[in-house]
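Q: Convert this sequence to structure tokens.
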Amino acid sequence: MLWRLAPAFGLLFASLCVLAPPAAKAQDWPAKGPIKIIVPFSAGSATDIIARTVFSQVGDQIKQTFVVENRGGAGTTLGAGMVARADADGYTLLVNSTSHVVVASTYAHLPYSVANDFAPISELADIPFVVATATKYNTLADLIAAGKKPGSHILYGTAGAGSSGQLFMERLRLAAGFPATNVPFRGTPEGMNEVIAGRIDLYPAPVLNALPLAKAGKVHVLAISSTKRLALMPDVPTLAEAGLPNALYNFWIGAFAPAKTPKAIVERLNRAVAIALQRKDIADKIRNLGGEPTPMTASEFDAFVTKEIAINAEIVKESGYKPQ
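A:
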């Protein structure tokens, strides 16, 4: 009887051996380094700086090095796609902005699923957009008036077609009632350089990218997308105060892993991120960039991302934007 059971037992043992390595890997993580963070924007962008700020401290906690790779292009889908296809072993992560959920409804043939191919780790920060323009515009009313002139050709920059910046700008121009054309860039620094040079009219920029340029008199900041004014820019009105309450937009930055990353690794990263965001030095750095730390549990961030996909899909529908 025992010899008849032996083959079945052998198969069961072999199955257990096959299943054992992922659990062991999750338990041993991070046994090697460095851990790669893909940021689908250029160096110096808000998403890039927040990723480096937070994960430098996370690295101190888990005694491992995080290396940021900037892979901008294709409205953030190039970098995000790399993470969607990466090994789900905790050694490749994504830090992306609201563009992560926007592309779910602005791209007709996305090479990955926003809802199914990522494991949300935590939101990192809320950072509002500001309307940064060439210095020939002194108020939002000036920009709107220029855009409404017959034959006007307002150009605005974003991180690409279908990105959160474009969706925000579509809301703004529709609320204001003027036509405008999107000019894609790999990231905010490149776009802001074109604003300074006067080759485009405006760029929806995070505060950290616009503030030093505004202080130097190189750009004018006409409005902010948040519901209240920022302490860093107390003289800049909200869009609602400027007469465009329908143009408000939520811009956030968060961290993700490939979908099949072991839950134990995701939870460990989540705890480390939460500790980092609660440190005064990290929180102060984020606030000095015009943002607010926003730690969440992994399950809370998962639910938040699901809701944001739906909210942005509705904005896309209302704006009449056609997926490309």
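The first strand starts at residue 35 and ends at 39.
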